[in-house]
């Protein structure tokens, strides 16, 4: 883990940064607004970032049984994740028939021993092997069933249940890629005795804004009090003590990943009571907390129970461990448009009343009609509209450069943008500017 605002060591050409302009001597960090609007930059992002990074596909708990599958778009490409019936392995296949291209897995999710292409009825098993070809004799003896198996995405690895894929066969191993983010995933997973699951059902929505605005927003402590004013007023009305405010730190976790970690006044289903949960929940939460302390010691248990984390795993996975645990990924569709999918994650086998409290907590703040998400969507779309006004070339992301970084500064966004610049390269956009 490196300190926020320490420049990357492999920045060989510090002079050629036309789109991310960093000037530590003057405590200035700017990002050119064409990064949010240019179709050329958008195309290059798909090529230079989304083809080479590990991208979140789904969680192993979504395909618990042999033959379980889910269909997913990853970087705009149709793929599907399936647990092989014979091997028990989680595969991620390109969702395209090896005959003439049709999408093979057409349902969003389900359980299947075989996938039959609807076009000419070629059939593949859950390990991807080609099993059946109608009028087989028409091809003669040499039809190579192995060569015509479904194609796996170049690299597929999982970290403690989180399944990632990468289209670049030469990418570093996932554990190395995750770098400092691993410890934060561990903290969440360990707090549930290693058994987390995705709760069935998703939030899916679209934002008319550049995808990087959501990267920034997801780890932005600065906007919380102003943008989410209604939520804070609601908590106060319920009797929550907001005197302590939101205090925390941000960390650069390496490879563009960053986290915001802070103590917050709201409750946490894992072990921090608040009035929203009701008086009857107090004893239960006290017992949960004692259990955490017994298992993990006071210090780690307190971090699990009392502190919140908003983490960005570069480029497009957000894990929020706040009043509930959410996993959110988003796919750029155009310079000014993205699709977002969010899931709620919970300890496997959680008692029904705890699960209910968690879901309430999730929906109250993070759901599509919750206190946070519509406000954030409005803020991001508003930025995108503002870019179209022109007249201002740069976004300013320098907050906190003149002091030791605090949670509501912008160092975590600078972490993101430095990595973005490294991947995009320094100088090919002169004419766009
Ligand atoms: Fe799938 Fe022909 S395209 S069987
Ligand atoms: Fe927000």
Please give a structural write-up:
It is a single chain. The protein is an alpha+beta fold. The protein has 2 domains: 55-170, 3-layer Sandwich (Rieske Iron-sulfur Protein); 181-393, Naphthalene 1,2-dioxygenase Alpha Subunit, Chain A, domain 1 (Alpha-Beta Complex), CATH 3.90.380. The protein has helices spanning 34-37, 39-50, 174-178, 181-190, 211-218, 224-227, 229-238, 282-306, 352-365, 373-389, 411-424, and strands at residues 20-23, 28-32, 55-59, 68-74, 77-83, 90-94, 109-111, 114-116, 123-125, 130-132, 155-159, 162-166, 196-198, 203-207, 247-254, 257-263, 307-313, 317-321, 325-334, 337-347, 394-396. The strands form 5 sheets. Strands 13, 14, 15, 16, 17, 18, 19 and 20 form an 8-stranded antiparallel sheet that branches. A hairpin with a 2-residue loop joins strand 15 and strand 16 (257-263). The two termini are 34 Å apart. Residues 7-17 have low confidence and may be disordered.
